[in-house]
Each structure stands twice: as C-alpha cells, then as structure tokens.
C-alpha cells in the first residue's frame, strides 16, 4: 500500500473511532440521535454520518457534541486524534489545581489514586481473576450506594 493510501486509511479509521465513541457516549447517556443533534446544534444526518465514520467533525463540532453529551471536549479531542492523551488526566489536574489542599495532601491523594489504578490494571491482566471488589471487601452500605449513583 502506498503512503498516501495508508494516510487516507488512517484518517478514515480515526473518523470511525470517534464516531463509535460518540455513539457509545450517546447511548450511555440514553440520548437519541435527534436529541443529541438538537443539543449540539447539528443536523440529524450530519451527526449520523459522524457516528458511522463517514464524516470527520471539526474541533468546534466536537466541542458542541461534548456539550450536548455533558462530557469533556478534551475526551473527544483525544479520541479524534486532535490532542494526545495526557499522562495525568483530569483527576491529577483537579488535585493539583485545588488551592485548598497542601502540597503534602495533594501528594497523598495522588499516591492513593495511582495505587488504585495500578491495582486495577494488575487485576485486569490476571487470567481467572474476578472483576469488581475483592472478596474481603465490605459490602457497600445503602447510603454509599446512593452517593455513587448520583456521581
């Protein structure tokens, strides 16, 4: 395959990936295609073409779609290949930006966060391991369960 054909195929795959991601986020939010199109200020056919990978939306359209989905535009930009994934991510950024935390508190929070991420990554790579909470974990109280649902 010639370099020009490879580049064209890569762009088409990026369009498909962003379309799949938008469709998944729309379904997770339980929003119809028409509702999202209206919220984002785009036409139904255009949004449908984006979801099917036939069109590659501009950064401005992605921002409008993100607003309609109530997700970060950055997440869509990363999926579309406009931005590169940041190492820290939004959790790290939020902790570091909080003016009410001391530097020591920030570091402790980030250490705990990273340990949870490492633990989850390790458990997802071990074959035969159940996903979810470890057997020794206490069941969530009803109050804690409700708080999780609201987040």
Automatic annotation (TrEMBL):
Residues 22-76 form the HTH cro/C1-type domain. Transmembrane segments: none annotated. InterPro entries: Cro/C1-type_HTH, Lambda_DNA-bd_dom_sf, TransReg_Diox_bact_type. Keywords: DNA-binding. GO terms for molecular function: DNA binding; DNA-binding transcription factor activity. Pfam families: HTH_3. The keyword Membrane does not apply. GO terms for cellular component: cytosol. It comes from the Bacteria. Residues 119-151 are annotated as: Disordered. This is HTH cro/C1-type domain-containing protein. It comes from Longimycelium tulufanense. The lineage of its organism: Bacteria, Bacillati, Actinomycetota, Actinomycetes, Pseudonocardiales.
